[in-house]
Amino acid sequence: MMERTQSFFLKEPNSNDKIRIFCFSYAGGGASAYRNWGTYLPNYVGVYPIQIPGRENRITEKALTDMCKLTDKIVSAIHPYLDTPYLVFGHSLGAKISYEVCNELREKQDNAPCHLIVSGSRAPHIPEPEPLHHLQDVDFIEAMKRYSGMSKEFLENRDLLNLFLPIFRADFILDETYCFTKYEKFDFPITALYGDQDQDSEIDTVEAWSEYTNTSFNKKVFHGEHFFIKTSEKEVLAYIKDIVSRYV
User: Fold this and answer.
1) 201 an active-site residue?
2) Which one is catalytic: 7, 32, 76, 92?
3) What gap in Å lies between CA 71 and CA 139, rounded to an integer?
4) pLDDT tens for the 248 residues of the chain, in order
5) Is 159 exposed, middle or buried, given 0-12, 13-18 or 19+ CB atoms closer than 10 A?
6) Residue 62 — left, alpha, or beta (φ > 0 → left; ψ -120 to 50 → alpha)?
7) I need a surface site. Which of 49, 173, 218, 233 has the fewest CB within 10 A?
C-alpha cells in the first residue's frame, strides 16, 4: 500500500499562507517540538513540522536510517506545497535533513526556499567526532547523557527507554552514517543558530555553513546548551520572525 504523503504533516498546509516554514526535529524528537511556534509567529506564517516515520503519531512505522530514502519521501510529501514562498528549518539532526532536502529540491529543479536556517549543527562535511550508534545499549544510554535535553528521569526509566531506545538508535545511525557527497553552493541565504554552551557544535564547525551559499551567511548565538531552541524559545522565534518578514 502506498504511504499517504499527508502523514508527514500534523495538519494540511493552509492555502491562505503567505509564507511557510517546514521544520525538522532533532534525534529522538518529533513534530511536537515545534508545537508553540505558531503562537509566536504572525498568523500569515504557516508552520509545518515534518513528522518522519517512527515518531509520535507515526511510532508504529519503521524508522528510516538511510538519509537518501528519507529525504526522497520528504520531498515527495512537501512538493505539492511549494506554491508559496517558504523557509526550511532544522535543529541538530534536523539540520542535516534540511540540507539534504534542499539539495534534492535543487536536483528536481523545484522552487528553491527563500532561506535555510540550521540550528545546533556542524556543517555537513564535518563528521560526528564521537559516534554512539555502534555502542551496546548500556553504553549507548550512558553516552546520551551528554545531551542536555534528556532528563535524568527519562534516562533512568527502563520502560520509557525500552520504548524509545530503538528510535534514538535509528536516528543516531541516520546522523552518524550520513555520508556527505556534495558541495554545490545554494543560491539562497543560510543562517546558523547555536548555543553559547553547546559542546556538540563549536563555533568553527557552525561557521563552516558559510561555505554552502553563494549569497549571504549569518550566525546567531543564543544562551543555552544543545537544546537552546527550547530554553531560549521566545528569543529564537523573535529572530526567526525577523528573517521571515524579509520575504513577505
Assistant:
1) no
2) 92
3) 30
4) 444 444 899 999 999 999 999 999 998 889 999 999 999 999 999 999 999 999 999 988 989 999 999 999 999 999 999 999 999 999 999 999 999 999 999 888 778 999 999 999 999 998 876 667 777 777 777 777 666 556 667 667 777 777 778 888 888 888 888 877 767 899 999 999 999 999 877 889 999 999 999 999 999 999 999 899 999 999 999 999 999 999 98
5) exposed
6) beta
7) 218
